[in-house]
Amino acid sequence: MTEYVLNGGIFTAESVQLFHPEDTVFPLVQLSRFPDGSLYVHDGHHRAVSVWLGGREVLVEEEYCIRDWPSLDSYAKPNLSAQWYTPFDLLTEVRLPDTRAFKSLVEETSPEEAEALIARLKHMYATAREHWTMVELAEAIRGPAFSAVVQA
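-> structure tokens emitted (152 positions)
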């Protein structure tokens, strides 16, 4: 994916199919924006890191969409009517890459039992945050030496 960016590629909804032809959903990088103006990558971390490793410091408009959230707390609570089944603390946790099986499980559960299930099975959709910046994530993926070369 980094080579794709180095060659001038951008991750539109259509171009993502090149990397995941077996998937049926090809979202843009999804950013979450909060009232203080802070932005967090919600979905598309690998593409965001590939953009950075490919020498671009920003996503282009065709690569992302933004969802506004009323507060950080709202991210950490389930909202069954909005199909928000994978709440987590954005400051200390990250969502796992593939939550489809977990979301299906929640949808098969009665609304009365869903929130308890979500709380009990958090390990199926979230884990502790280990990386805080795109640089840290890039180094975890490719190693510090590669990251230093890209920054030069």
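The longest strand covers residues 29-33.
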